[in-house]
Write a structure and sequence with these properties.
The protein is an all-alpha fold and 79 residues long. The chain contains four helices and no strands. The chain starts with a helix and ends with a helix.
């Protein structure tokens, strides 16, 4: 399996799990950019949040958490 195929499969899994098929291309970008382990950990965290605690959508929460991860990595790399 190629890296691109792996990324597409991960992206499809994320989009389905998050109920956000319309943004699958965004998840493909994430899958090409971030380690699969990070994406899966964040997905598990998002899926644990009860529906009544979701303010916008699970996809929005996932993106927020991924940006937090990226910012923390960026700050670690600068030190």
């Amino acid at each position: 399996m190629t890296h691109e195929t792996d990324s597409q499969l991960i992206a499809e899994e994320l989009a389905l799990a998050l109920g956000d098929r319309e943004n699958q291309s965004l998840y493909e970008y994430y899958a090409r950019t971030y380690p699969e382990t990070v994406l899966r950990k964040l997905l598990a965290s998002v899926l644990k949040v009860p529906n009544e605690r979701i303010k916008k959508s699970r996809g929005a929460l996932f993106t927020y958490l991924l940006k937090q991860y990226a910012n923390s990595r960026h700050n670690l790399d600068r030190n």
